[in-house]
Amino acid sequence: MSQFQRFLAKRLAISIGLTLIAVSVIFVVLRLLPGSPFEALVTSGNLNQQQINEIRALYGLDQPMWRQYIDYMVSILTFQFGYSILRSQPVWDVLEPRLVNTLILLVPALVTTAILSSALGMYAGWNRGSLLEKSSIITTTFLRSTPVFITAIFFIIVFAYNLELVPAFGMRSVTASPEGYVDTFLSIDFLHHYLLPFTVAVLYYSGDFLLLARNGIVEKRGSEFLKLHKAKGLTEMQQLARAGRNSMLPILTYFALRLGMIFQGLILLEVVFGWPGIGRELVLAIQQQDYPLVQAAVFIMALAVIIANLAADVLYAYFDPTVSTGGGSSA
């Protein structure tokens, strides 16, 4: 087994261990929360205590804690998420459309800002000390450090209420009744609702990529290989292109990490815009203590982040020979 293969096996083992820890923490935390999913139903008079006991038995909540934990681990690790307690629907049927809505919003936003902000950051880093560099760093750092819900509210006030250019909330009009994903996402009505949260998400992500790209170019500028290219007669833009290509690894690994975190959604962004994504659904499920729904949602988010971290580690170790894979250079 080569050194890189041993490195990969070690990272896989760590990822499996982290997954088991994550799902165990989900189980414990939910059981420590005060109250139960059935309190609201009892106090409202919709169900009596006997009916509550029957539902508890149906979901296995009348079993000892160790038995609940074993059943939970088996179901969650085999992706059998069960039924939502309060919605009486399969958990995946509840989560799937919300997850798609989140990905439709955030993946294009992440790709867009990764391309545009990285290109701007590289150009700013090449022209170090320029007005462009200073203004871009100040602007994107301000946007990144400002809570996303503040930016979202500001954009709603300006563009939805004052200028009345776009709707303030939701993913489509109340009267719209699309059938299927194609009809939902390929419509003018959807695009009209999409523009504002998409723009806020792009601005929110922009600072990290711009600074990564700018710092990479600053480090590469003045290096020996660029002096050689300059001696060969390459133009400034050609030298910038080569410096950018050699500084892409941190951007790619950060993109992989961010892609995994996208499965969490930008919860506050979804709540402010009323976007029916997985983050907003998780908030509602926690408030209602819908155990199967919360467990499945958090498991999907945790698994996505762990896989993304694994991909970033492997990507860095494979493409950067200076990164150790366990006592030596990588293969």
Write structural notes for this entry:
By secondary structure, the protein is mostly helical. The N and C termini lie close together (11 Å). Residues 327-331 have low confidence and may be disordered. 31% of the residues are buried. It contains 15 helices and no strands. The protein has a domain at 101-291: Orthogonal Bundle (MetI-like fold), CATH 1.10.3720. It has helices spanning 3-32, 39-43, 49-58, 65-77, 91-126, 131-145, 148-162, 180-185, 188-220, 224-231, 236-246, 249-261, 267-273, 278-288, 291-319.
Structural topology:
Elements: H1 3-32, H2 39-43, H3 49-58, H4 65-77, H5 91-126, H6 131-145, H7 148-162, H8 180-185, H9 188-220, H10 224-231, H11 236-246, H12 249-261, H13 267-273, H14 278-288, H15 291-319
Helix pairs in contact: 1-15, 5-6, 5-9, 5-12, 5-15, 6-9, 7-9, 7-13, 9-11, 9-12, 12-15, 13-14, 14-15
Provide a concise account of the structure shown.
With 331 residues, the chain is an all-alpha fold.
CATH class of one domain: Mainly Alpha
What is the helical fraction, as a range of percent?
Answer: over 70%
Distance between the termini: 11 Å
CATH architecture annotation name of one domain: Orthogonal Bundle
CATH fold naming of one domain:
MetI-like fold
- Tell me what portion of residues adopts beta-strand conformation: under 5%
InterPro entries: BPD_transp_1_N, MetI-like, MetI-like_sf
Membrane topology: Multi-pass membrane protein
Main location: membrane
Family: Belongs to the binding-protein-dependent transport system permease family.
